[in-house]
Amino acid sequence: MLAKRIVACLDVAEGRVVKGTNFVNLRNSGDPVELAKRYSDEGADEIVFLDIGASHESRPTLLGIVSKVARQVFVPLSVGGGVRSTYDARLLFNAGADKVCVNSSAVSRPELLSELSSAFGAQATVLAIDAKQSADGWVVYVMGGREATRLNAIDWARAGQDAGAGEILLTSMDTDGVRQGFELGLVNEVCGATNIPVIASGGAGSAGHFVDLFMKTEASAGLAASIFHERSTSISSIKEALCSANIMVRPA
User: Fold this and answer.
1) Would you state the pLDDT for residue 13?
2) Quick one: CA torsion of 218, 133, 159, 118, rounded to 10 degrees?
3) Given the DSSP bridges, would you call strands 99-102 and 125-134 parallel, antiparallel or unpaired?
4) One-character DSSP codes across 140-152
C-alpha cells in the first residue's frame, strides 16, 4: 500500500498567496516563498503552486517566483497556470518544477496532455479539474473557475487519463474554502472512473476530514490551503490523526 500524501497549496495572484471561498472573495495569505519553505519544513509531501490568474490574463506563469520557491523546498513541486505548450512546461521544469498542472488549456486542446506526457512523462503531467455540481451532474469550469464548460467532470477525468495525464488534481468548487470536509461523492466518482492517482482538493477544515477522505475514498492525496496558511491545523497533526486511524503516511 502506498503512503497517502498531504499536499499544501499556494494559489498565487500578483505575486502573493491568496485564498477565498468557492473561488471568490480572495484575501492575502502571505509570501509564496516563505510559505512554501514552511510547509516543506513542516512535513508536506508535496507543494502545489497555482498561478490562478495566468490563464484568464493570457500570460505565462510567474517563473521568477516559481524558481525562488523551488530553491526553498525539498519535496515535489507541481506548478500550474498558463501552461499552453511543451515549451511553457519546459520553462517551468527548468525553473525547478517537478510536475506541471494543466486545466483550461487542456480543455481547449486535449492533445496537450499527450504532448506533455510524451515529452516529460505521465508522472509529470497533472490534469487539474475544477468541478461544480449542477442539475446535470459535475460540470468542469475553466479560467480559474470563471467559465463553465459543457464537460462532465467524470467523463473528462477518464478522457484526460486516456490522453496522457498521470495524475488528477480534483477540486470541488462547492466546498472550496468552506472547511466542512472534502466532497467525497465527487472524489469517489473520479477515482472509480480512473486508475491514476487523484489529489482531492476543496473543503479540508480539520485532521478528521483527511481521515474521512482516506477511509471513504481511494484518493491518493489530500490538499489544503487556508487551514495551513492560518495555522488552524498543522501538517503534523493531520499525519498523527492518520497514523492513529492506521492510514499509512510518511513521517512529518
Assistant:
1) 85
2) -80
3) parallel
4) EEETTTTEEEEEE
Which tops the pLDDT comparison, 242 or 82? 242
Q: Is 231 exposed, middle or buried (0-12, 13-18, 19+ CB in 10 A)?
A: exposed
Which positions are catalytic?
11, 130
CA within 13 Å, CB half, 131: 32
Task: Mention every residue, 6+ apart, whose C-beta is less than 8 A from residue 135.
Answer: none
Task: Indicate the helix (H) or strand (E) that contains 92.
Answer: helix 86-95
pLDDT of 34 > 60? The answer is yes
Single pTM value for the model: 0.94
* pLDDT tens-digit readout, 81-126: 989 999 999 999 999 999 999 999 999 999 999 999 999 999 999 9
Amino acid, single-letter form, for residue 163: A
Cell numbers standing for residue 188: 469517489
Query: How many residues in the chain?
Result: 252
